[in-house]
TrEMBL record:
Coiled coil: none annotated. Keywords: Signal. It comes from Streptomyces cupreus. The lineage of its organism: Bacteria, Bacillati, Actinomycetota, Actinomycetes, Kitasatosporales. Belongs to the CapA family. The keyword DNA damage does not apply. Transmembrane segments: none annotated. Residues 1-23 form the signal peptide. The keyword Signal applies. This is CapA family protein. Pfam families: PGA_cap.
Length: 382
């Protein structure tokens, strides 16, 4: 972890650099079409891990708002340049939103809806919302969450307010491509689906995922991205269920193209490996991007719970109509959430600025490369 005496200075340095860099970021003008980052008809996609506002995160957002409301923008400022410069940026909003000051952390989360505005200001275009906490406040929690994301202009996938919404595919524009975003969770912590609303939360089912992916492809999606809330908490290695489902999904076809083009994993609280499976990139787990002090199964504080990665993938258009959009560059960027300062930190930038974070950065790198992704071309980005 960062030495406590250096944390605030580190984050302030990162934020000052971020503020200067963001003056020309594409998301400063909401609604303006995103330019292609590749300049050749392709696009870049970035994705990040769980946004999990514990009570300490809620308190920090209130402090950052000067005691009036909640401001989540400063927490993300250190990674805003990376997120906002992508053609398409996807997050994972793990919790549901409360209202009128009724906000709670673990174990049943109800987060301030201002979190949605913070995500939008950072440059996120869409978020997966299917998680084990999706039903922490029943159907009302889902409704408030999706309403707030809609107001902020952030698209969403994985939960729904109505059956028609559940059946619709979330499609986002990235450069010249239409990107379908699908999202599913392994469970809802034992909370039953709301009466009469079996469609409220997408649960992981291989047949359902493939049917949705193929429907999206037939409807014109050039790229199909699947977010999966899965895996074993506090385990660096993907579990057998993750490995089995990843192999099945990446082996499936829609016509002469893969059914799925990219898999983004969340839930485990720790960074997990990246791997190219059947020619398709899989991130088994990105870790927690925003979270308070995390405690593992033994009840001990575990710094891995505040470590994560951002995945960045450059897609190139096919050489023929109807062909596959291929990933021509795969990268990851290691992150740390500084729980003392309440800020997300790009660890590579922090190292450049003299922070003592090489051990943390290298541990994340080793986990990410642990299933051979480096041999398949994955690199650590800036």
């Amino acid at each position: 972890m960062i030495a406590r005496s250096r944390q605030v200075a580190l984050v302030l340095t990162v934020l000052l650099a971020a503020g200067a860099a963001c003056q020309a970021d594409r998301h400063e003008s909401p609604g303006r079409p995103a330019p292609s980052a590749t300049g050749s008809g392709g696009f870049t996609l970035v994705a990040s891990g769980d946004v999990l506002p514990h009570s300490s995160i809620i308190d920090r957002a209130r402090f950052d708002a000067g005691g009036q409301g909640y401001d989540f923008r400063p927490m993300f400022a250190g990674v805003k340049p990376l997120v906002s410069r992508a053609d398409l940026a996807l997050c994972h909003m793990e919790t549901v939103y409360g209202e009128y000051g009724d906000y709670t952390g673990y174990p049943a989360f109800k987060s301030p809806p201002e979190a949605a505005a913070g995500l939008a200001a950072t440059g996120y275009d869409g978020c997966s919302t299917a998680s084990n906490h999706s039903l922490d406040d029943g159907a009302d929690g889902i409704r408030r969450t999706l309403d707030a994301l809609d107001r902020a202009g952030v698209r969403h996938a994985g939960t729904a307010r109505a059956e028609a919404e559940a059946r619709a595919v979330t499609v986002l524009r990235a450069g010249q491509a239409q990107v379908a975003h699908l999202a599913y969770t392994y469970d809802t912590n034992g909370y039953p689906l709301p009466p009469g609303q079996p469609w409220a939360v997408n649960l992981i089912d291989e047949g359902r995922i493939l049917a949705d992916a193929r429907a999206a492809r037939r409807a014109g999606a050039d790229v199909v991205v699947v977010s999966l809330h899965w895996g074993t908490e506090w385990q660096d290695e993907p579990d057998e269920r993750q490995l089995t489902l990843a192999r099945s999904l990446t082996a499936a076809r829609t016509g002469d193209r893969p059914a799925v083009d990219l898999i983004l994993g969340t839930h485990a609280h720790v960074p997990q490996a990246y791997e190219k499976v059947n020619g398709t990139w899989v991130i088994y787990g990105m870790g927690d991007q925003i979270a308070g002090q995390m405690y593992n199964h033994e009840g001990s504080p575990d710094p891995r719970g505040n470590q994560s990665t951002i995945g960045r993938f450059t897609f190139a258009p096919p050489g023929r109509p109807g062909g596959r959009w291929k990933v021509t560059k795969a990268e990851f960027v290691p992150q740390l959430f500084d729980i003392d300062a309440g800020r997300a930190v790009n660890l590579n930038q922090a190292l450049e600025q003299g922070a003592d974070v090489q051990g943390v950065r290298d541990r994340i790198r080793d986990v990410v490369f642990s299933r051979g992704a480096q041999q398949d071309g994955l690199v650590m980005g800036e």
